[in-house]
Amino acid sequence: MSETFDEFLASRPQLVRDPDARRVPGWCDCPRWSIGDKPIFHRHAAGCDATGEAAEAFTFVGADRVMKATTLEALAAWIPAPPAPPAQDPAATTIVIKRMLSLGFHLVALPAGTKKPRGRGWNDPEQTPALTFEQAMAHVNAGGGLGVLLGPSDLIVIDAENAAATAALVAAGYTPVLYTAKGMNPVRCDPRANKIGGGHFWFRRPSSIPAEQLSNVPQKVVGDGGLVDVLAAPGSMAVVPPTALVEAAGWRYTAEGRNRLWHGEDELSEAPMWLFDPAAGCPTGLENLHGGLVPKAPVERVAHDEGSQELTDAVDGIEWDAVEALDDRLEDWGDADDDGCPVRHWRGADHRKSVTMHGCGRGRFAHVWSGTMRAALGMGDRESVSPLSLACLLLGKDDRGADVREVAQRFGLRLGGEQELDTITPDSLEEAAAELEAAAEAGGRVESRPTTGTRQPDGSGQGEVIRVEVGADGLLRRAAAFRSAAVVMRARQHVVAPQSGAVLIGAGSVVGLPAGLAQAPTVGGVGSTAPVVPSAPQEPLDVETVEGAKTAETAPAVDDAVEGELVEGTDNAAEARRVFRELRPKIREIERQMRDTTPGLKRAWDYAESEGVFMHGLVGALLPRIMASVPPNVVLPPRNGLRTHKVKGQGLNQYGVVVAPSSAGKGETDNAAEAAVPLQLGVATTTNGTSEHWSKLLRGRKDGVDYIKTTSLLAQVDELDTFNAYLTRPDSKMPGWIASTWMNGYGGQGTSDEKNAAVLPKHGSRIGLLVNGQPGKMDVLAAMSAMGVGPRFYKCLAGLVHKADRGPLYGIPVAPVMADQSGQPWYSLGHVGEPPIPCQQPLAARDAGTGLQAAPLIVNKGDAIKDDDGAERLGVTGFDDAEPIWIDLPQCALDDIEAGLEISAERAADWGEAFDQDQEGLVSGHRVPMQMHIAAALMVLDGEHVMSSAHWEAAGLFLIASDLTAAACAAYMELSGEAEAYRLGQLKGVGYAASKAAEATVTSRGVQSAMKAIVSRLRICGGTAMPGYLRSGSDGTGNLPKFGAMSKLQRAHMAQGFAVLEQAGQARLNADGSWSLAGPLAIVA
């Protein structure tokens, strides 16, 4: 190489040696160079332990943030030498600064070459007064830069980070006011990020929107891959011209001269209302910004009482070191903020300053600067959290409800009911019951109930006071429950000597305090407080953690008799959110493993990286397209291996659901798949429709003769809602059609009406179904497991890769995903419905075929194709009479098939077990056939016609990710059901709230399973039993029939299941708290 290291550095002024000598975890102490605050390469001394090289060596940090070995030559080719920036124009500088001051901007000074302000209180107008014109000019002439404080300037800035974002905003009718330093530079000074063409758009904050209610909106995708930040928080700052940045090789923020604002002809436009109001019309391409600045309601601050202040002091006393130790993604790079508080880096974040852990005069809290960190922790638009909240988020817990109490105990804090206890006596319960009965006699009453709100993924969700009409039936059920609880309390109280500060649970007692006085924590509900249930003899317990014990059959378990437990704090909600947090990281690891199994999946990985989409979702979207050109006579062998007839083979049709929340990347994934694998001539494409419509695209009948229109169909359904509607409408043939066509293409309909006749014989059609679905709308497919519909669909997770996680191939063309198919025995460039003719195939395809065929008859061009009898032939030839092409399977697949046969045999022998599996969505007998389908598609992706163990392994990995996606969908539906129940009734339990919750969750598999368990157990018991007995399966004495305890899923939905049965007149709640079958079910019992 002709360029020395010194010359290399001299030609790249954006490179700065990092003066921080503190060792970064996983890196050595050799000098490193950065662009901005992002390390990019190390220069290792000879003998460095990190490289093991005897001579000087280099390593670089790519977009994946993994250090890799390189050479100086490679670095020089990778990191560009930018052109010199144009000279600063003094006249333009004067105009720009004067205009900004005339607009009322609060300008502040920035150090030379950087956009990071320095000094304590830099964003406090009280401590940092606005620069005058003379001060601003002097600072710029001395080499410094300028920023504008948004709050005192009433300014909102949309920061378009690249040319695509700028174009999207221009297309929406807005004009950039300036271009950024990196946007002005014609080359990418940092090859890991393309910010060429980025600019700022300025807007005046509407006077009707209080500044203190605004926050910033980080990293949203707009237009065709554009990235924007919206800066609106009053403490934020935006860089302005003529600031020059070292990381941009000296190029400057530059005013857009065509914007009339600089000429003093226009005033600053007010920010459009679609930024603040989700109901306002939003320009096309900017939907991800729609409503992004919805003002936050002000938080009312109230004075602390002595107890709450003590609790606040205890939470503030949690040491930051103890919080940091919970998650090794927090890295100490030795940085401190302007106020001296420690700064930590979040592994994977773009910038080194990710979070400041304050313990100063501002208070004790963590301010999270990094959008990557906030996204990883599920913080939404929150930026500041307490030490305890940060600990919860780092542990994957919710920072409210039961999770907070659990995490607090790690730090020696005890939160919850022991802070404030309410007195409950049998008399108070009976008084409450009498009040409820009186209200019932009056026909019901209206109750006001505060809600905490339903927390949204972005952290928003605000509570309110609602008014609920409670009917007489609900009031009487609640009164009966209260009287039953009073009976239990009186029967189990006994006198103990008063002991100051002690709360003891005695054998058979409620709470061991003086007779007539029992204390228990308040449980959610209007006038509803629950006594503590007995536990182990004479054991001091924390009243917050006492679990219900078994009770005699004549007395109700307290949690069955008394309403309570807010949905917001349920175990189901916490478990669901844990599943959501872990879903993408788990699937990302599976994607990495898939990448290394086959050449085709490595190409799919590269293509997904280039497109910026999830690989799992992309592969799922590709599978039907991959198989669309494979004729239907290509089949998998039957389970017993006997290939005596084509009809015994298993087809290769591909049915899948591409799953993602709304506006999360399903469309981009579909587009990427469509571009990657074009369809062969003759493949029929369609969207949603009936199974009859789909069949008629494949087959028809004319003059009593059936004919083939084509042999391949790809249906792409954009919305799961409409697909569900076709599945569930009365007399729908769709479920049966899906179940039969998936295995062998058999289906369709025969009718005397020729225009509707379309009979699909076995192995005559290749069909692909791809449905775009949202996780909360998967209930219909899940409920159809027993019909064989749900298990026919794999589920793949789609989404857009976060900017911080994009790989180096993003935006770069890569190799085609599909391997060359010319070696396949079915290879043809003609119509997909016409069998290939060997003499027209490549030699490789002929060699792979099963035998030679005669050359076709030569006919005059344009003549109609005729049958042997001379009649004109309709449609295409098809493959109904073609010999099968069998796919050979590896031994590992044969072993798994054998195991799958055992599952099928067990289901055939025990219909009860099959029923339970269907109810729980665990029809595992379909798993092996599904793996065969997917492995065959991956085989074709590689241009092969013999399946390998690698294809089988990769298909298994794909299905593991499919299972995780399905589990997350189930959790989403469960959580959605609980959230809806919460909105409708606030409480979960036997009574009014449960009956309302049942209306929202009746389709839930958990509710259905709980209903089945309740009915079957009540029948065993003769029709009546206590709920606690039904739950546990034993009365503890052996006097009643014993059966297995309910599953966790059934227990979680037991109350809702009973409420559904009660509404249907199939069960009733008795005065003593027991449940009984009613109506026809009672007669059967």
TrEMBL record:
| Chain ranges of the DNA primase/polymerase bifunctional N-terminal domain | 97-275
Spell out the Polar residues composition-biased ranges. Answer: 449-459
One family name in Pfam for this protein: Prim-Pol
SMART domains hit by this protein: Prim-Pol
Q: Which InterPro entries match?
A: DNA_primase/pol_bifunc_N
Disordered: region residues: 437-463
Question: Which SUPFAM superfamilies does this chain map to?
Answer: Prim-pol domain
Q: What is this protein called in UniProt? A: DNA primase/polymerase bifunctional N-terminal domain-containing protein
